[in-house]
Amino acid sequence: MRDVKMLPFARGLIDHIQEQRRLFRAIVGRRSGIVVQARFRMMVHELVAEDLARFRYTDWRGDAASHYVTGALVQVLAWWVDAKSSIPADAIEAFLIEATMNALSGTHGRNRYVSSAADGVPQIRSGVRRRRQGGD
Q1: I need a labelling partner for 62 at 20 to 30 A (CA). Which of 42, 126, 131, 136 fits?
Q2: Distances from the Cα of 86 to the Cαs of 92, 95, 98, in angstroms?
Q3: 88 φ, ψ to 5°?
């Protein structure tokens, strides 16, 4: 099994925002309209939900996780374009992936995101070792 990259769309989104920073700030920043912000959030949510669908959430946690990640992603990107510092895109991407992995690993105890060699479908695998039955 190999590790799966979380949020594969993030770098393209970050690069686009960086190239169009002034426009993004006007559209999604603090001074933009709520309708525009809601539309942007919906578009990001579609990307996040599609990405998280690769993982085997089978109950309400999948939907809750996609909304959680969407909110965090949109807020961090809005903060980034409004920030006075020049944080590089690589650092923002790394932070978003790390924060997402850390946040979602707690949704099922101590989990790791892995790709199944058998069917190629990513799944969540618990990092918690279980004691074998029979006294081992």
Answers
A1: 131
A2: 11, 15, 20
A3: -65, 150
For the chain, how many helices (H) and strands (E)?
A: 5, 3
Tokens of 86: 């020049």
Whole-number Å distance between alpha carbons of 53 and 76: 22
Q: Whole-prediction pTM value? A: 0.69
Q: CA–CA separation, 45 vs 73, rounded Å?
A: 9
